[in-house]
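Recap quiz, item 2
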Amino acid sequence: MAQFLTEAMGTLSDAGSLFVVAAGLTLVFGAMRVINLAHGSFYMYGAFLMTTFVGTSSGLRFWWSILLAALVVGALGLVVQLGVVRFVVGKEPLTQLVATFAVFYILADIGLHIWGDGARTVMAPLAVSSSFTLAGAYLPVYDLVIIGCAVLVGLALWLVLGHTSLGWMIRAAVDDPEILQSGGVNLRRLHLGVFTAGALLAALAGAIVTPQISVAPGMDQSIIVTSLLVVVIGGLGSVVGTALAALIIGIADTVGTLVAPNWAATFMYFAVILVLVVRPWGLFGTPER
Amino acid sequence: MALSMNDQPRAALTTTDHTAPRATPARRALRPMAIVVGLIVLVVLGMTLSPSNALELQYATSLALFAVATNLMLGFGGLVSFGQGVFYGVGAYTVALGWMHHSLSFGEAMVVAPFLGAAIAVVLGALALRTRRLYFALLTLTLSQLAYVIAENQANFTGGTNGVFGSMVPTWLLDPRNSFLFTLALVAVSIAILWKVTRSPFGLVLRAIRDNRSRVEALGVNVFAHELAAFVVSGFFCSVAGTLFVVYSQSSYPELLNWTSSGVPIFMAVIGGMYSFLGPVLGAFVYEFANHFLIQYTQDWQLVLGVVLLVIVLLRPDGLAGAGSAVAARVRHLRTVRATHDERPGVAETGEGDAS
């Protein structure tokens, strides 16, 4: 029981941070039909900015730094949208993938100049860096922070997308952009807002996981693959699907580590293959024309 | 190829490859001549350059095959595969592991590798081609990463993160000239076969699928089989390119298989021009030499590559080859305009607007 609780908590926390990154990716796709391969770069920038802002301090500054890192990367997202992504909306997948791949390269290079190629760490404030006991299991408090954050993000997206006029505009932006525009909605501004929000979510996830990982170049490359796995399983554009898929990936990873450590890293890929063989458009996606 | 021999609608599938040059007799003679001259220049360069530069030329030559093989799907089939690194890596690992486990001689591995790549392509293609367009790109990217993870984690068999390195190439291939000529010969033959494939009825059907999938489907063509065949042929030749990586570096490592490695031939095709058969060759040489020389002066290769890709994909999606033929068309156009309408110079501005 104790081991199960420990594993479950770790899985939930991993799935939580993964959900926040992937939600940003799927949100952008849902509104603009663009897969942003530089999404992982926003995640990495969030984490690196966090190391810069927090420095060696522990305490309240940690929380402000998360907010600040997310906002700065949101502004970066604004620039990327205005400078690049705006021009590839509605273009061929190849154009979109190569253009955002190019942004990925550019951001990776700039990141190397700013933060160097060494690994960095961040300490969580004392209040959340301890553990608590439940049914004989020692569970880190910080896992709860990540899970809580993921739940909040999920709720916020569900509310905004499903229950506000902004939400139906975002959904209509793909279904029928022309009608939407003739109704007086500024589609460009809508895209700009959504893309910024997507970058912000990636950075939020990157910032919030910093106490649990070592922050280093290359994390942009690995997170984008994992979050692509998530959105592909969940169905591109679906937030509910993304949440479910993040859980599936998290569980596949944990089970893999327990069952066959040597093959652990491959489990999540087989989960994707399994899902796509049955439903090539993902669990909650719609078939592509 | 045999697949398409029974496809009745062949006559209806007039190609819309607007970049194909009009076959005037002069142009028809020009192309083979240019290729022969290019080959001679390559051989002379390979024989006269310093060993390190000749080695670089050899590497660029092998990458040209990787790019052309990838472009069979990208430019001709309209299939964006971010997974060709798998086959490149399979080619390299077949030679390297055959040597490490004493199971295959170099010669045997060179023969086995492409067929192994093709066999894996049958399986992965059957899986990935269930999906379309963006999902296909993302799924192949995933498969590429899966292959990478396997190569990295099965250390007992693959040598793990460090990969395999050692004297796995026969001694006669250690001479830079021999290995260059060997690479050039293999690449030239492979590219010639790929050229035949794109000009065959099969290649025409493939292009027709790219341009109007539902119409070709309605005509009764088995689209899936054609796309799978393209995937397999591409995988076969990507593996050949992978074996040549071992000839170049005498090593094989997991990064050959991952998604950024799979992106490289796509970039080459995009830079050189994916709608022209030899565009990717141009792209491969430009890419590799820019990489090779820039690394000596700056650490910002990624930045340069990123900016170049952005400029090309946003402004000239048909790449250098497309830009070249647009310039040529412009010049021809201006020349005719000057000859016929000498009194109205403004015509040139309103003529072929596609040059912008």
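Chain B has two domains: 45-301, 318-356.
The two ends of chain B are 38 Å apart (CA to CA).
End of item.
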